[in-house]
Amino acid sequence: MKKYILMLAMLVCAGFFTxxxxxxxxxxxxxxxxxxxxxxxxxxxxxxxKSIPIGDLPTVITDxxxxxYPDATIVEAEREENGSFEVExxxxxxxxxxxxxxxLKEESDEHDEDHDGDNDDDDKIAIEDLPTVITDxxxxxYPDATIVEAEREENGSFEVExxxxxxxxxxxxxxxLEEESDEHDEDHDxxxDGDNDDDDKIAIEDLPxVITDxxxxxYPDATIVEAEREENGSFEVExxxxxxxxxxxxxxxLEEESDEHDEDHDxxxDGDNDDDDKIAIEDLPxVITDxxxxxYPDATIVEAEKEEDGGFEVExxxxxxLIxxxxxxxVKED
Length: 334
Prior knowledge:
This protein has helices spanning about 1-40, 60-70, 130-140, 210-220, 285-295; strands at about 50, 75-80, 85-90, 95, 105, 125, 145-150, 160, 165-170, 175-180, 200, 225-230, 235-240, 245, 255, 280, 300-305, 310-315, 320-325, 330-334. By secondary structure, it is α+β, with helices and mostly antiparallel strands.
């Protein structure tokens, strides 16, 4: 009997011991889980998680800001997933740098000038960061103007605003593209289409030599006052005598136009300017000039035109107009 009582007591003790161990193990697991929870960083990918201490910014960035924004103070700094940096200043500007600390662009919501919801300063760059080829071009072609703003577009091209209201555009290599001026929309909308006809204006010195040579030879008393390059690559040159001379993309003469001559030279009374296709006399085919010399020896050519069909119309100083076909064959006398 004592033997059974002893065995029963031993079983009860073993049960209490097992329960105590299981409770202790559970407590240890809970404590371990709690520690893991405390030590495991949050995976909540919020903007705050990429915020970095201002003191951790690379020196190249803080030096750039000190040099270009001497009156501003850094209020926040962030590092993006790609390693780039974004720095917020107390003047509301956000300055972006690449992973190496090179300046990328400046942003400011306050500068949405056209109220389209876009930040027009997104690609603004410091003036001193403009390529030398651009600043040299502006100094040479706009000596009385000062750069007030510079931007770099997404495609790498540049847009420079001058204090005279002009915007000068350059490609990614710094080559001049065009000059724009919003102030000239009304004054220079010569074709009445609402477009600014200065959009493709180019510097006179950028005209091909073949064009300037042609003008010097055929209009020796005239001076070029404006030059434009059209979207198709052709050129339009305005002279101080009111004439507009057009050339193709290779600099070959196309035609001469003059709005001032609409009434005086509307010889056929159709309201069109009959000077639209006027050509230099020396550009007439030899077969035509030879014909005139042989058949009108006492007359002098005063004007020559090339018609849309390729034919020619020649006006003599005796009042006659001679018509020739595209091959230079005589057609009739008017």
